[in-house]
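lol so apparently i was supposed to do this last week
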Amino acid sequence: MSLKLDGKKLSLEIEEKLKNYIFDNKEMAKRNPSLAVIRIGEDPASGIYVNNKEKACSRVGIKSFIFHLKNTVEQTEIEKLINKLNLDNDIDGMLLQLPIPKKFDEQSLISCINPDKDVDGLNEQNIGKLVKNEPAMRSCTPAGIVNLLRSQNITIEGKKIVVIGRSLLVGKPLSLMLLNLNGTVTMTHSKTINLNNICKEADILIAAAGKPNLIDSTYVKEGAVIIDVGIHRLTSPDKTKTKLCGDVLLEDVIPKVFAYTPVPGGVGPMTVTMLLVNTIFSWQKQFGLSSTLNDLLP
Ligand code: NAP
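anyway here it is w/ NAP bound
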């Protein structure tokens, strides 16, 4: 039987460790860790994500501050807010909930975030440190995937790993993390020729294309590990029901693989957990606390 890489279970286990870490260290720091979340506009999915992050923070003892700005705000006003939070010693982590409305320059706003508070790990300085394999904030979804693999002692070193997708959010940082861990990594994208043949070579196949059910069993080597990053809500033809699915046609692939991530309950919960880890990482650095959680940041 194939092994389910249960992100929900692992994220609860890590949260327990984080809760204990905060409890043990808050006296020395004289305050709990804190996270500022900036949301712009009314995208309903962003509202749900921000809500989930707020709840996760409160479960482990991180204080969260939500700044919900109107779509009509000016870019300079957002920059001012980011700069204010950059200078605020009571804020350890900060993130801009993506996507933001198209009229704003997303990358330039991310560049304004103090790299030491950039809990999404998307600032150039943190990406640069990842390229150099130096410790820093790591982007949450890729770091969550590495922790999922490690939790089941799935070997990365020497393995052939194919990543489908090259986004700044997932594909690129994930490929770099796996390369730093001595995987032999192939990064693929929408212009890749013979994707099927390349995927079939993979010991570990990671689908982050954002295309529902793109990967069926013909893409997968017998005994491979398959990680599904995609998340999509599909509506039934008669429009009465909706269902979540990933980039992988799981029911077709599961009988062939050694291990897989479910959707939902695989990669998604780990992304939120890594946000908590990054926030605590920043708090730990600021107050010179013990670094017992550092092995969670690949
Ligand atoms: P993205 O920015 O749209 O990037 C998608 C990447 O996949 C691009 O590099 C694209 O290639 C490539 N691609 C698209 N179609 C392809 C195809 N047919 N064959 C091969 N490559 C293809 O998306 P993203 O932000 O990386 O997210 C990917 C998926 O993960 C989405 O479903 C998103 O919702 C999900 N996600 C989930 C989590 C989570 O926590 N579970 C977190 C983040 C993202 P080009 O570069 O050539 O366009």
